Amino acid sequence: MKSKQDNIIDMFDNIARNYDLANRILSFNVDTKWRKEACLKTLKLINRDHLKIIDVACGTGDMILNWIKFSKDSKILGIDPSINMLNIAKEKLPNEVKLIQGEAKNIAIDDNMVDVLSIAYGLRNVVEIDKALSEFHRVLKNDGILVILEFTKKDNENFIDKIASFYTRRILPIIGGLISKNYKAYKYLPDSVSDFLTLEELEEKLKKLGFIIPIKKRYVANLCSLIIAQKNN
Ligand SMILES: C[S@@+](CC[C@H](N)C(=O)[O-])C[C@H]1O[C@@H](n2cnc3c(N)ncnc32)[C@H](O)[C@@H]1O
Q1: Is 21 among the domain residues?
Q2: Looking at the whole model, is its pTM more than 0.85?
Q3: pLDDT for the residue numbered 59
Q4: Eight-state DSSP code of residue 219
Q5: Which domain holds residue 122?
């Protein structure tokens, strides 16, 4: 029988072709703005060129497009377990960007090698999250930056949060289902957010691993969170 993780990866293989279109429509294009802001804030903090950057759960390569645009002379590697998502990324990205198939819990890089590791809308899909976070800590250099952009769980919902939840629970799966012909995949999105961590729980895990958190931000009705963490030991 297939594991929960294998089923999640199969689901992304299945929706890869329409993934970008669905994102743009379902998020009213703000997913693009959040990725861009995550990159710009990180680069301002690190304030150097010639970086070694890894984008884990790179999917169709949208985060990498930002790293290419805004960082100077950086070496960029994308990692994702879904071959179909990677194939779309290959079509969009220049050949200098290396793409490899792999999971967050097992990154084929030596210790202390990476200046920046990003994961955008990916961590929620990683079943063994503690293993993955330790792996991120392992491959980052001291002072290296971990950038997490993710839909985090909310403990208490105010009125605006409830409207946003109604959209993600009731409307998003219908529109996503129509675009991708895969209702289940877009029903999975709000379910996976409810099963995920709150921003505070994620911060706690990172601090325990030895990260400090210079930047954190919540976006639109607390739906999405950005954490920029720095390896401190
Ligand atoms: C919602 S997409 C995000 C893609 C991209 N980062 C973006 O910003 O659009 C989630 C990605 O996580 C990948 N993924 C699923 N399980 C994973 C795992 N265990 N390790 C790394 N990536 C995983 C999927 O294949 C998919 O490409």
Answers
A1: yes
A2: yes
A3: 98
A4: E
A5: 4-154+197-231
pLDDT in tens, 47-73: 999 999 999 999 999 999 999 999 999
Question: Dihedral of CA 149/151/154/160: which sign?
Answer: positive
Q: How far apart are CA 125 and CA 55, in angstroms?
A: 15
Judge whether 223 lies within some domain: yes
Type and span of the H or E element at 218: strand 211-219
Which parts of the chain sit beneath pLDDT 70?
A: 221
191 Cβ contact partners less than 8 Å away, ≥ 6 residues apart:
none
Question: 180 lies in a domain?
Answer: no
What's the token pair of residue 74? Answer: 């950086």
Continuous H helices in 128-216: 129-139, 159-166, 172-180, 183-194, 199-209
Total count of domains within the chain: 1
| Residues within a 6 A CB radius of ligand 1 | 5, 8-9, 12, 56-59, 62-63, 80-82, 85, 103-104, 120-122, 125-126
Are 144 and 231 spatial neighbours (Cβ–Cβ below 8 Å)?
yes
Residue 197, by phi and psi: left (phi above 0), alpha (psi -120 to 50) or beta? beta
Ligand 1: nearest atom to the Cα of 82: 25
Is 164 within the bounds of a domain? no
Domain of residue 8, CATH code: 3.40.50.150
Q: How far is the CA of 7 from the centre of ligand 1 (A)?
A: 13
Query: Ligand 1: which of 5, 8, 12 to mutate, judged by most atoms within 8 Å of the beta carbon?
Result: 12
